[in-house]
Amino acid sequence: MADILEGNAATARLPRRARTKTGFGIALPAAGIAVAHLLPLTLFYTGTKWRDWMVFAGMYVPMVFAVGAGLHRYFSHRAFRTSRTFQFMLGLLSCCFFGDPIGFTGKHRLHHRHSDTAGDVHSPRQGFWHCWFGSLVDDGLTEEEILAAASDLTKYPELMWLHRYFWVPAVALMAVILAVGGYTMLVTGYILSWVLITLHGPCTVNYFCHRGTSRNYETGDDSTNKLWVSIYLLGEGWHNNHHHYPGSARAGFFSGEIDPLFSILRLLERFGLIWDLRVPPEHVLESGRRDEKICA
After folding, report:
1. Which pTM value belongs to this model?
2. Is residue 15 part of a domain?
């Protein structure tokens, strides 16, 4: 995995998008990120119980699914179809663990539109800090740009409600966890999980999966495939595949490219909760096989 620490050849430093937030709009998310990292340190003083760690472990798959399958593959790329009811359930799950579908979708689609150019939202070429945390604090997008990029979702009043009040499901879930297990369960089971999985997870994809040389396709950007990221995020590390054919519900196109999220989606399809899972057509697979490389 030597390419993890190396950038792609002939990459140039890019400017960041102009800031669209100031003052409180920057201070609030920055403070939230800082507090989320500091609170788990209090566990060295309070101690933990075994059930706290059971909740921690139990959060892993739902959190990765909410971001990877819900926000990314469904809302952003419409890689499968579902009912309006289950769509709203996916939206609630997403808000519990990361953010609202419209906000994520608008930002992510603009990332694809301008990938690794000056118009990107979070390219490593714009610097590590901006790619990792800076774009979470101020992504340089206006509300109008986000809504325009996610215009197919804005027609649903329930998703617009989640866009305005994205914090409500998360606060409600935290209140339930606090009531059931107290402070240590809240910090161990929810906040620590959130930091390690849904905060650093997408940032890991944004940074490491746009650096290196492990590519099946020439995509015109810096997207790469990373096996270790796919292990961490249940298949979300096959990023070069994804950038070549983003509408696929399956990110691991070839043998050895593990994709547990797609297996979960197939299970939901069998239960009738989702349908019409899109997969890469044969000509896409064949073009990748010609230059297929061993992934880092």
Report:
1. 0.92
2. no
Task: Pick the closest to residue 15 from 136, 138, 117 (CA basis).
Answer: 117
Q: Kindly give the parts of the chain with pLDDT less than 70.
A: 1-11, 290-296
The pair of structure tokens assigned to 31 is 């403070």
For residue range 129-156, list pLDDT tens digits in order: 999 998 999 988 999 999 999 999 999 9
Q: In which domain, by residue range, is 191 found? A: 21-289
Domains of the chain: total: 1
Query: What sign results for the dihedral spanned by CA atoms 6, 8, 13, 18?
Result: negative
Domain assignment present for 201: yes
Residue 8 lies in a domain: no
Model confidence pLDDT, tens digit, residues 268-282: 999 999 999 999 999
Are the C-beta atoms of 203 and 128 separated by less than 8 Å? no
Residue 224 lies in a domain: yes
